[in-house]
Amino acid sequence: xxxxxxxxxxxxxxxxxxxxxxxxxxxxxxxxxxxxxxxxxxxxxxxxxxxxxxxxxxxxxxxxxxxxxxxxxxxxxxxxxxxxxxxxxxxxxxxxxxxxxxxxxxxxxxxxxxxxxxxxxxxxxxxxxxxxxxxxxxxxxxxxxxxxxxxxxxxxxxxxxxxxxxxxxxxxxxxxxxxxxxxxxxxxxxxxxxxxxxxxxxxxxxxxxxxxxxxxxxxxxxxxxxxxxxxxxxxxxxxxxxxxxxxxxxxxxxxxxxxxxxxxxxxxxxxxxxxxxxxxxxxxxxxxxxxxxxxxxxxxxxxxxxxxxxxxxxxxxxxxxxxxxxxxxxxxxxxx
Length: 336
Fold this sequence. Notes:
The protein is an alpha/beta fold. Helices cover 29% and strands 27% of the residues. It has two domains: 2-125 and 271-334, Quinone Oxidoreductase, Chain A, domain 1 (Alpha-Beta Complex); 129-266, Rossmann fold (3-Layer(aba) Sandwich), CATH 3.40.50.720.
């Protein structure tokens, strides 16, 4: 089967950073689905895994943790899906990725593709949707169905992939959304997605948020990087919660968190698959829920750009776009 893979961890400007390779077609066993991949999305995790070591990968390492496609075959223990089903999923970082014609994926982390979306539109969603959903509803404990209506959430880095779906999930839950964006195009984007207020995270945010009438906010999500930690601590309400998706070596003073009895949560959407946690199937359930919300018109895809075909040259171009740090929404590559 065709695949895009790496053998050496190189800068994306190097033509050898990602290569077109031919690999054996895998076979489904256990609870695995064999999916014929139709479209993939590129995320910052792809660029981080590609660049992080000086090792040599043999056999070649296939990246990609966002896909949509069609189930070609199922393992003997599969109960949720059947061949011919259209699906979308983010995958498992410990297994070969989605930048291949066929991929094995555990059915417990797979959702039925939204019927109203194309494969490209669906491929933009899984990783960021799982991250945002788990951040709000599993980590911060926000009521998905409106029980916390009227509470405020500050989404730092709202114009990116995770922030773009997070705005919509927060609005659907009845929250007042304060989104951060630093450029006119991303400010327009987050407003279009439903943000109630927009502040610039490249300027002092405490003053901006308080000028909007918020002394504190109920929830804070850090979806870009932890240089905003002290701002988040200053703005979180007493007994409120902060969630972050960024690991960091930066200082994280905790005294004010203790004084406020505030909580800090980490979100890593691969945790359930990596450790096969007892609640692993919750990712199937949440992707199914979001698909229903999309088909009902309450949530939209965050796709911003489609490239084609799925090959090393195009995937390298997508990595380069992600590494600029200027992308809004999601970049998808479709069709082998």
